[in-house]
Amino acid sequence: VYDTPGIRSLDPLSADEQVTVDILNKESNDPNTILMVVVDSTQPERHLLIAHRLISAGYNVFIVLTMPDLI
Fold it and tell me: Rounded to 5 degrees, what are φ and ψ at 11?
Protein backbone atom coordinates (compact mmCIF):
# COMPACT_ATOMS: atom_id res chain seq x y z
CA VAL A 1 0.00 0.00 0.00
CA TYR A 2 1.32 3.41 -1.01
CA ASP A 3 -0.07 6.73 0.19
CA THR A 4 1.26 9.23 -2.31
CA PRO A 5 0.80 12.94 -2.92
CA GLY A 6 -2.18 13.90 -5.05
CA ILE A 7 -1.79 14.55 -8.75
CA ARG A 8 -3.81 16.54 -11.26
CA SER A 9 -2.19 15.04 -14.34
CA LEU A 10 0.00 12.16 -15.44
CA ASP A 11 2.56 14.80 -16.44
CA PRO A 12 4.09 15.87 -13.11
CA LEU A 13 4.58 19.57 -12.42
CA SER A 14 6.24 19.24 -9.02
CA ALA A 15 8.58 16.91 -7.13
CA ASP A 16 5.61 15.60 -5.12
CA GLU A 17 3.69 14.72 -8.27
CA GLN A 18 6.83 13.11 -9.74
CA VAL A 19 6.97 10.70 -6.78
CA THR A 20 3.39 9.59 -7.46
CA VAL A 21 3.88 9.26 -11.23
CA ASP A 22 7.08 7.24 -10.70
CA ILE A 23 5.20 4.80 -8.46
CA LEU A 24 2.35 4.59 -10.99
CA ASN A 25 4.82 3.79 -13.74
CA LYS A 26 6.52 1.16 -11.58
CA GLU A 27 3.23 -0.55 -10.72
CA SER A 28 1.60 -0.24 -14.15
CA ASN A 29 2.64 -3.75 -15.24
CA ASP A 30 1.03 -5.45 -12.24
CA PRO A 31 -2.59 -6.38 -13.10
CA ASN A 32 -3.34 -6.71 -9.37
CA THR A 33 -2.62 -3.03 -8.72
CA ILE A 34 -5.70 -1.05 -7.73
CA LEU A 35 -5.60 2.71 -7.36
CA MET A 36 -7.83 4.45 -4.85
CA VAL A 37 -8.73 7.90 -6.15
CA VAL A 38 -10.17 10.18 -3.48
CA VAL A 39 -12.68 12.62 -4.97
CA ASP A 40 -13.95 15.72 -3.19
CA SER A 41 -17.73 15.54 -3.65
CA THR A 42 -17.98 19.32 -3.75
CA GLN A 43 -15.69 19.52 -6.81
CA PRO A 44 -16.17 16.27 -8.72
CA GLU A 45 -15.42 17.74 -12.14
CA ARG A 46 -11.94 18.66 -10.94
CA HIS A 47 -11.10 15.29 -9.43
CA LEU A 48 -12.88 12.92 -11.78
CA LEU A 49 -10.70 14.12 -14.65
CA ILE A 50 -7.60 12.42 -13.25
CA ALA A 51 -9.67 9.32 -12.43
CA HIS A 52 -10.80 9.20 -16.06
CA ARG A 53 -7.24 9.59 -17.30
CA LEU A 54 -6.02 6.78 -15.05
CA ILE A 55 -8.82 4.48 -16.23
CA SER A 56 -8.05 5.39 -19.86
CA ALA A 57 -4.40 4.56 -19.22
CA GLY A 58 -5.44 1.04 -18.17
CA TYR A 59 -5.24 1.28 -14.39
CA ASN A 60 -7.79 -0.41 -12.13
CA VAL A 61 -9.40 2.46 -10.22
CA PHE A 62 -11.54 2.51 -7.08
CA ILE A 63 -13.16 5.91 -6.49
CA VAL A 64 -13.89 7.17 -2.97
CA LEU A 65 -16.14 10.20 -2.47
CA THR A 66 -15.40 12.50 0.45
CA MET A 67 -17.43 15.32 2.01
CA PRO A 68 -20.88 14.02 1.00
CA ASP A 69 -22.41 16.05 3.83
CA LEU A 70 -21.55 19.27 1.95
CA ILE A 71 -23.35 18.49 -1.30
Answer: -105, 100
